[in-house]
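Attaching the record inline, Q. Sequence:
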Amino acid sequence: MSFLTLNRLTLLAALACATPAFAAPAPAAPPPPRKTYDEPPPPPPSNDGMKLGVGLAVMGSTLVPSAGAGGGLVAFYVPIDLGGKFRIEPWFGVGRSGARGTGGNSAFGIEFGAGGFMLMKPVNRINAYLGARLGLGITTVSRTDPLTNASTSDTGVDIGLLPAAGLEYLPDPHFSVGIEGQLGLIIRTGGGSTAVDFGTNGLAFLRYYM
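Structure, as predicted:
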């Protein structure tokens, strides 16, 4: 029969004291401190990328005839905004004016070109731009003699340099309505002569941005 020695009693006492310490759960981590300030709002969406659109001139003409009896113009524009600071806008248009038939004069033409504009900072959904357009127009004028009923036609080439400024309102980020005023010169050729026209012109636009 074995007896408990003093050393064994000391070892058993140490184990009895250490067991509850190992069995006790670890203290929970303290909660993170509460914020006493409001987080800043998220930054506005960036406007540094390219924005592409399509446009239609609903009134006015740059180079080709659009007024007179039976006249009309269809012109399409492609605004390309670069970083919200500069716009390049190619366009193509077809127009006709005048009366057809005996004793009438009529004109038909096409125009194409491009504009370059600086974009101002938007204010209350209104964009302003300032720049110029450079375009080329090809116009054919047909005339019918009322006495002989003989028809003649003449084709001329027009070159236009038109400083321009415009405003457009965006009720929706993808859609705008706008107006543009132009002041410049057009060099007109045809009929064996060349003429330079100075004047003003106005356009009204519908534009849709992708």
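The chain has a mean pLDDT of 79. The helical segments are 6-23.

More tomorrow.
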